[in-house]
Amino acid sequence: MISKDEFRRALGRFASGVTVVTARDASGRLHGITVSAFCSVSLEPPLILVCIDKNTGSHYALAETGSFVVNILRQDQQYVSDRFASYLPDKFEAVGYDLGIDDLPVLEDALANLECRLVNSHDGGDHTIFVGQIERATIGDGEPLVYFHGNYRKLETD
C-alpha cells in the first residue's frame, strides 16, 4: 500500500476545480469547507457527489440536516477558498452570501451554485461520500478557480 505522502503527490497531478460546500447544522450555525473532491453522478435525476472529512464540523452539519450547497469558485475567488480551508471561527465573515433552500448559505459571485438535498451517503475511509440531488442551480460567468500540483492555477483560454 502507498503512503499518505505518495497518495497526495500522485493525486496532486490531477487538476481540479475548487468548490466551497456550505451547510447549516441543526442548531442553525453556518458551516463551510473548501472541497476539491466533487463530481457529477447522474443527469437524470441531477445528482452530484462531494467527499467530506469525517472530523469536520461541516461533515456533521451536512449529515444532520440533509441539505447542502456546492459553490463552484471563480478564478478571482482564491481568498474564499483559503478562508473556508482555514480553521477560522467565522468563515462567513466578510464573504457575501444569500440564503437558499432550507436557509442555506449560497455564496455570492460564484461560477455556479448547486443547492442540493442529500439522497445518499457512503463510507469512504476517513471521508463520507455525500450524494445530493440538485434542487436549484445558479450559473454565473467567468473562469474557474483551478488547483493543480499544490497551487492555484489559471486556465489559458484562446
Low-confidence stretches: none
> Which CATH first-tier class would you pick?
Mainly Beta
> Any idea of the CATH topology?
Pnp Oxidase, Chain A
- The CATH architecture category equals Roll
What's the total number of strands? Answer: 12
CATH superfamily: Electron Transport, Fmn-binding Protein, Chain A
Radius of gyration: 15 Å
**Overall average residue pLDDT:** 93
Report the β-strand fraction as a percent range. 35-45%
Organism: uncultured Pyrinomonadaceae bacterium
GO molecular function: FMN binding; monooxygenase activity; riboflavin reductase (NADPH) activity
Keywords: Monooxygenase, Oxidoreductase
Domain Flavin reductase like: 11-154
Can you characterise this structure?
The chain contains three helices and twelve strands, in the order αβββββαβαββββββ. By secondary structure, it is α+β, with helices and mostly antiparallel strands. It has a single domain, classed as Electron Transport, Fmn-binding Protein, Chain A (Pnp Oxidase, Chain A). The longest helix has 9 residues. The mean pLDDT is 93.
